[in-house]
Amino acid sequence: MKLVLASSNPGKLREIGALLSSFEVVSQDVLGIGEADEPHSTFLENALAKARHASRAARLPALADDSGLCVDALGGEPGVHSAYYAGRDGSREHRDARNNEKLLSGLRDERSAYYACVMVFLRHAQDPRPLVAEGVWRGEIARAPRGKNGFGYDPLFFVPSLEKTAAELDPDHKNRISHRGIALQKLLGLLHDQA
Fold first, then answer.
1. What burial class does residue 181 get, using C-beta atoms within 10 Å of its C-beta: 0-12 exposed, 13-18 middle, 19+ buried?
2. How far apart are the first and last CA of the chain?
3. I want to staple 115 with a disulfide (CB 3.0 to 4.6 A). Which of 8, 32, 57, 137 is the partner?
4. Rounded distance, CA 136 to CA 116, Å?
5. pLDDT in tens, 110-169
6. Which among 13, 11, 23, 18 is positioned nearest to 175, based on CA atoms?
């Protein structure tokens, strides 16, 4: 099955593409489709908006996710605002660095956090029954960045059971246990049930 992946984030494209080897996946960038607006207050609404936008423009089934880091001591922030927590200026790498700095500056001793991902699959832009799956990955915020893999908050997202940050994990290992990996495995199960 050919589908459009509704993302321009290179990290997400790598992770999702690695897990969808049985599909012909084309990113919205390759098709010249710009990013959708994400004005909503929930991961689900934003993922649906992105999937509908990409599916409509590509005239293909679409897969989209909306995900973010939720920190208990910050009342769930940055949440749906994770990508632009410290502003929209600069390259993705500069935004990630500023986001991480802002996150660390707002924390004291309470460091529990989780990554959340809501993934949506649409058969077509007006699909009345989208397939939806959610993944949650629990951990805590490290006191300083560690590791070179991953993207976004991965250098700060510490997994106590592994004694590593997400950025210290091998990409294949991370894909199996992460919020995005969990959501995608659930979604693939739903797709299989629909076949």
1. buried
2. 12
3. 137
4. 5
5. 999 999 999 999 999 999 999 999 999 999 999 999 999 989 999 999 999 999 999 999
6. 18
Counted domains in the chain: 1
- CA–CA gap between residue 130 and residue 128 (Å, rounded): 6
SS3 (DSSP) at 69: strand
pTM of the predicted model as reported, rounded to 2 decimal places = 0.92
Please give the positions annotated as active site. Answer: 66
Query: Which structural domain range is residue 128 located in?
Result: 2-194
Of residues 186, 140, 144, 148, the one with CA closest to residue 170:
148
Task: Report the CATH number that the domain containing residue 118 is assigned in CATH.
Answer: 3.90.950.10
Calculate mean pLDDT across residues 5-16: 84
- Enumerate the β-bridge partners of residue 158: 140, 165
